[in-house]
Amino acid sequence: MKCFKGFDKNLQCRDFQYEIGKTYVTDHAELCQEGFHACTNPLDVFSYYNPGESRFCEVELDGIVNGESKDSKQAGTKITIIKEIDIIEYTQLCAEYAKSKEHQTKDCSVASNSGDCSSASNSGDCSLASNSGDCSSASNSGNRSSASNSGDCSSASNSGDCSSASNSGDCSSASNSGNRSSASNSGNWSSASNSGYRSLASNSGNWSSASNSGYRSLASNSGKQSLASTVGTSSQAIVSGEQSLAVAFGPDSKAKGALGDFLTLSEWINGEIINCSTLKIDGKRIKANTFYKMINGKFVEDE
Fold it and tell me: Where are the domains of the chain?
């Protein structure tokens, strides 16, 4: 059975080490107790692994046992790790999955609109609001839901926990206020914003912004002359585009970027800012693709 599974940053789950392309077998499986576990619905994985700190894979799960679950979680005796999926692709996959499951119940519903200047809205759990028209809005307030929009000058918004807001149009906004959620945008001059704990705001467009205010969250931007900023505690800001800025303003947070980018870090004591500074990644004093924190007023490597 095709499923999706989350892992920590080392591709481990419950201290068990996995590898891409490998198959693993065990004698017994019981839901939430033993064996290998994965979800058929990619959105459900966010309930177990937050997008800001985790890795996600497509897997093949066999030897599945019967058991009651609150979501699409399955347990089996055999698992093959097919491939790893980056968070932007994973967010889009969540939207595609929800749209393909056109349930007719209130809590598992689809609101879809392809017209210009239109709106697709859904407040049910396990739901999708999708819009491909220009100047449009796709909104969803349900848990484990997806709001997706591919039109220019559009907005995809979601306030539910364990949810995904995705937009691929230029001049667009993908916003999410739910915990363990993902707001993703691949268009230029766009914004991906998230205020939930342990969440991800990601943007791959040029001249764009990815921001996150949640605790232990991630703001990532790969576009040229773009911004990744986070104000949450113990969070991360990452940029990889040319002439971009990563801002880790929250307490105990860190940032990294590519050569030629800039990092802004702050230092806090007892809830007050005591230091804040911006430095260019020159490859000498400040290394590329290396996390830094501010300690005693200085940029210190943190890997």
Answer: 2-85, 87-191, 206-303
Give the C-alpha separation, 168 to 185, whole Å: 5
Q: Are strands 137-140 and 119-122 parallel, antiparallel or unpaired?
A: parallel
Locate tokens 């149009």: which residue?
A: 169
pTM of the predicted model as reported, rounded to 2 decimal places? 0.68
Count of beta carbons in the 10 Å neighbourhood of residue 127: 29
**In sequence order, what are the residues at sequence separation of 6 or more whose Cβ sits closer than 8 angstroms to the Cβ of residue 81?**
5, 18, 19, 20, 21, 22, 23, 57, 59
For the stretch 12-67, pLDDT in tens is: 999 999 999 999 999 999 999 999 999 998 878 888 887 667 899 999 999 999 98
Please name the residues in contact with 272: beta carbons below 8 A apart, sequence gap of 6 or more.
none
CA 152 distance to own-chain centroid: 22
Q: Is 153 exposed, middle or buried (0-12, 13-18, 19+ CB in 10 A)?
A: middle
